[in-house]
Design goal:
Rossmann fold; four-stranded parallel β-sheet; 350 residues; single chain; alpha/beta; globular
């Protein structure tokens, strides 16, 4: 049986690439013939190139930094992802890019986020009639309210899937009314489907018991500054983007989580790899228009009984920072959650 995975493997996002690697690795371990469909939206590439023609020094500088980071990601993809021989750039290629597979798995990551995925066409909803089995695994919407016009556009595509699972609770409320073929299930991110040992070849082990790794996106600068101030006497602080000209590779990012005693993050995959590597962590939530992304973190923390790892101010962090995690309890719950994911795949790949 030949399986194609359609996901956001092409972005310069640590978790996006690693979840693609994890799903591929898990399925290969079950002896499936699996590859990642090498779809990289032309609009993403074109927008990136256009920025180099900008008259703004700041814009050019930002994109040079992003280009340098992308070269590191490209090396990782080439070495560790089994990409399709053909590279696709246009959403209109959808019928061609899924041909030749028995099953296409869409996901994981925010492939059904209306504010991201629609920028690259409707390809992640597989808007073609075909006998190929369509499965959505741990798709994320990244929002709590789905735009009505977008939902109307993709409803028929959603109902054409064979089976659907999602990464966060709010996604169920949005997707289930549009999917009549069965129950939409919450499943874990692919990163927990494989053993932690699968990531160790990418880790340069150098444990720092005084280390704190801070990885935040769309950060609350005031809160992060206050947290850093409380850490100064006790911890050495590391950030992956501290040098914009030499941002972390995927291997360095994983090592940053593995090698440090404490992790501060608002990244979903920052949380996931803290769990995988048994690192104490705290979460600062994303604020403003992107706050809908927090539900994927709420979902996993609620399932594991770790809601108290969310900090909303420096005072809470000061009180909580000495509290350690009961990893025995977490591992038991995470193992049960993993079984839900593996059962979903097992049942729907038959």
């Amino acid at each position: 049986m030949r399986i194609g995975i359609l996901t956001f493997h092409w972005g310069t996002n640590y978790g996006g690439v690693l979840q693609a690697y994890a799903l591929q690795t898990y399925l290969k371990g079950l002896n499936y013939d699996v590859e990642i469909i090498n779809y990289a939206p032309k609009t993403f590439r074109d927008n990136f190139l256009l920025c180099f023609k900008s008259k703004s020094v700041h814009t050019i500088e930002k994109n040079v930094c992003e280009y340098l980071k992308e070269q590191k990601f490209k090396r990782f993809r080439k070495k560790n992802l089994n990409l399709s021989n053909t590279r696709y750039y246009n959403a209109t290629d959808c019928e061609r890019l899924i041909s030749g597979y028995d099953i296409v798995i869409v996901g994981s990551d925010q492939v059904w986020n209306p504010y991201i995925a629609l920028n690259y066409g409707r390809v992640y909803w597989l808007p073609v009639k075909t006998n190929i089995r369509k499965i959505a695994y741990a798709v994320s919407l990244g929002c709590e309210q789905y735009p009505t016009d977008v939902l109307a556009t993709v409803s028929d595509f959603i109902n054409d899937f064979y089976a659907i699972s999602a990464r966060e609770n709010t996604a169920i409320k949005i997707i289930q009314p549009k999917f009549s073929k069965g129950q939409v299930t919450v499943v874990p991110d692919p990163t927990v489907l494989v053993n932690s040992a699968q990531y160790m070849p990418f880790v340069n082990r150098h444990i720092n018991n005084r280390g704190c790794f801070i990885y935040v996106l769309q950060e609350n600068q005031k809160l992060i500054a206050e947290i850093e101030e409380t850490l100064q006497c006790e911890y050495d602080v590391y950030k992956p983007d501290i040098n914009k000209w030499n941002q972390y590779s995927i291997e360095e990012w994983l090592s940053g989580i593995y090698n440090n005693k404490l992790v501060i993050t608002n990244s979903f995959h920052g949380v996931m790899f803290s769990l995988i590597f048994h690192r104490d962590f705290f979460v600062t939530l994303i604020e403003g228009s992107l706050s809908g992304m927090n539900d994927r973190i709420y979902t996993i923390l609620e399932y594991l009984g770790l809601q108290d790892r969310i900090i909303k101010n420096a005072e809470t962090f000061t009180m909580m920072k000495k509290q350690t995690i009961n990893w025995g309890d977490v591992d038991t719950r995470l193992r049960q959650f993993k079984e839900i994911g593996t059962k979903f795949l097992s049942d729907n790949l038959k």
